[in-house]
Amino acid sequence: MEAVNKLRKQLESKELIVAPGAWDGISARLIEQAGFPVAYMTGAGVAAANGYPDFGLVTLTEMTAAARTLTRSVSIPVIADADTGFGNALNVRRTVQEYEKSGVAAIQIEDQLFPKRCGHLEGKELVQTTEFVEKIAAAAAARGEGGMLIVARTDARAVTGLDDAIERVNRALDAGADIAFVEAPQSVEEAAAIARRVNGPCLLNLVPGGKTPNIPLKDVAELGFRIAILPGLLLTSMMGAADLALATVRNTGRVEVRPDALPIRDLFNRLGALEWQYPAASATGRDGAR
To answer: What is the dihedral of CA 273, 278, 281, 284, to 10 degrees?
Structure first.
């Protein structure tokens, strides 16, 4: 309830909510410590952490386990990817119940045919609009009183066109969704049309190298979007940095300490070592930064 209320209050404000993508406790803590108000649990990131591509191979159990890790690691709200709801409308009811137990503030359910694919890849297939709307209605009905928010995502832009995508999310909002997510608009003009024509708060996904232009966040806000998610920001950055560090050791035979590398003690402190080691001193900041 507390996380949901925080997210609702942020939606009511005029500020754009920027939510970088997290998949584990480290990435979630980095996002909170950097001052972002929300973390977005990226399904692609959770899949990658389990050794899979984003092809719908991760189960409900694995996704909700990741969600619990995120919510216990941070105090900011978490918006969690729930793929297609892991089945039909009946399965969606259980999906909502399990995610609600994890403590997330919102879940995202999409209209791809299972198994789904990353929204910025080719070859996607959709369920019928009526089935998508039934899933959203089932999700809205399954949540508890004052329960988490529902993000309705459509991948129709790449399959049946922008007009169908907008119609789908508007019908989903009528069925009980709280936030509309049209995946992968291919121009600033298309993004503007989504924000203008959708009858509710809109979310925009900014993916490095994806189909949507890299629109500055100031412009995203001016277009009328309420949330911008950055699911690949940390994942792609960390993989690039890791590749460089590993290649340096292989090529030089030495462990080069990067200028921005954290001392091991500071690393553990940022993961909560002080709160565990010195419970009475956590409020005073004893022995280092929290």
So the answer is: -20
